[in-house]
Design goal:
This protein is 42% helix and 20% strand.
Length: 167
Amino acid sequence: MSDGSDTDRAQAVAELARERGVRVAVAESLTAGRVSSVLGQGEGASEWYRGGVVAYAEDVKFEVLGVTPGPVVTDLCAREMAEGVRRLLQADVAVSLTGVGGPGPQEDRPAGTVHLAVATGDGTRSLETRLPGEPPDVVDGATRLALDELLRAIEEMAGEGVGEAAG
């Protein structure tokens, strides 16, 4: 889904999650709760949205989500955040975001670096990208990316593993 607003994206996630009985969770650092806020506006959110963890501080990532201590602007961190929130909130699918909003670098990674992961019962996939612009632009782009990847993951689940959240 490349066009449309965040609200449209969240509505698409809501419709598909409700249709398939999929429970959704989010772990956010870079977007500081933005993805969770948008998903909470989706139709029937109380039926499919389990919640989110805004793990902005490193120790929250480590202690709450079970991320391995070390650098946090990494693929490993994003993967462990998604897996951790999926397990913690007993969701079927979870998306996570970590990265560098800017304006300067962090952990020797340039502003605009985004690590995203999606965890399901079938495993975890991740991606890294670099988004242009000022910090608000990076957050906007990362939010869109997360909603699109979440929708893609639910589409790919095709009923497999639904209702069998991590325990």
